Amino acid sequence: MPRIMIKGGVWRNTEDEILKAAVMKYGKNQWSRIASLLHRKSAKQCKARWYEWLDPSIKKTEWSREEEEKLLHLAKLMPTQWRTIAPIIGRTAAQCLEHYEFLLDKAAQRDNEEETTDDPRKLKPGEIDPNPETKPARPDPIDMDEDELEMLSEARARLANTQGKKAKRKAREKQLEEARRLAALQKRRELRAAGIEIQKKRKRKRGVDYNAEIPFEKKPALGFYDTSEENYQALDADFRKLRQQDLDGELRSEKEGRDRKKDKQHLKRKKESDLPSAILQTSGVSEFTKKRSKLVLPAPQISDAELQEVVKVGQASEIARQTAEESGITNSASSTLLSEYNVTNNSIALRTPRTPASQDRILQEAQNLMALTNVDTPLKGGLNTPLHESDFSGVTPQRQVVQTPNTVLSTPFRTPSNGAEGLTPRSGTTPKPVINSTPEIAFKNVKLLFNSCCNR
């Protein structure tokens, strides 16, 4: 019975190198021709190996937290569509599926509160890997089989042949032409040594020699005036000006040195003629300094007499309020007319709120997916499976930005409230009198209150 060879199995380092060289030569479309170099692999397996492992654009680094959040979010939006999810994340489909199962196992272990060291997805002794294209290559043994050595030598010979049939024919014709030229040259040298001079026949070119004549030139007819002075006489080329320093021009350092020398000579002449201005120029002081003008303040809007009147009105109001409190008169009219003119004390001790606790989005999404996977039949009835809060607002999950709350925007000077700390009065309350109100009005109010107290 003939031996049946099934293509596939674990990829070896030799096969990976042959596949890389074949892709460099044949491209990523001729997989049948590439597979003919590998005796144990098919075209489909070669293509899968390139796009799942050998492609330089594949990321093989550790998964970041953002990639894991995006993977779980997209797996919830598009379940089992790994070919669609993979290019969004920037990984291969096999990597996305493998890491998704790893996250589900991790969430299940945390729910069961047990840590297992052995991975159930690892191959046991004697098992065959169903997806060898996504695994690292096996190193080559020191003593390779004859089949592998023959495959390696054949691939080396085929990949080294970089020329096609036409390129080979052109190279062969070029070599024959060179041999024919050398033979003719050797023959002419031998005849010249024997004293026989043979002139080399030059082929006459058909057409116009554009270097020797002007094509289709039409000379103008002679006129009535002499035009000999209009003939252009070419000047002799002056090769002395074609040196490198003349072509490059003047260097910047030379120009700066010449300017510095000019400044020194100018300063020297100025010292000899006008010494004070030269000293001021060297010391960095300008010759004409601008004098500073006097500070002009506006006239005060309140005089000392007005300030004294305000103090007297405040003292009279304080005396009247004390008198009303001692006599036991505490009605709304008294509290409205007699108000304090002190500065309102709004210094309230503010406390910075706590930063909200962050939640593990990856663990919550993994637990949601585990709960949806293990849900019972709806025929039993009962409540739905409890899930964590999630969102379907976009392809990428919403990220929780942890930041310290801004206490300035919630101060009593900005946030109105029903208490006494807000500056904006609510409806139904009488506003407090303004400090800079007219002194005569406040004095009349105090006088009316004092008269009412005396009448009682």
UniProtKB/TrEMBL annotation:
One term of GO molecular function: protein domain specific binding
- Where are the residues of the annotated region Disordered? 108-143, 247-278, 408-436
Q: Which residues form the HTH myb-type domain?
A: 1-58, 59-108
Please give the GO cellular component terms listed in this UniProt entry: nuclear speck; Prp19 complex; spliceosomal complex
Biological process, per Gene Ontology: DNA repair; mRNA splicing, via spliceosome
| InterPro entries on file | CDC5L/Cef1, Homeodomain-like_sf, Myb_dom, SANT/Myb, SANT_CDC5L_II
Residue spans of biased composition, Basic and acidic residues class:
118-127, 247-262
Query: Which domain of life, per UniProt?
Result: Eukaryota
Q: Where is the composition biased (Polar residues)?
A: 408-418, 426-436
Family classification:
Belongs to the CEF1 family.
Q: What does this protein do?
A: DNA-binding protein involved in cell cycle control. May act as a transcription activator. Plays a role in pre-mRNA splicing as core component of precatalytic, catalytic and postcatalytic spliceosomal complexes. Component of the PRP19-CDC5L complex that forms an integral part of the spliceosome and is required for activating pre-mRNA splicing. The PRP19-CDC5L complex may also play a role in the response to DNA damage (DDR). As a component of the minor spliceosome, involved in the splicing of U12-type introns in pre-mRNAs.
What protein name applies here? Cell division cycle 5-like protein
Organism of origin: Saimiri boliviensis boliviensis (Bolivian squirrel monkey)
Q: Which gene encodes it?
A: CDC5L
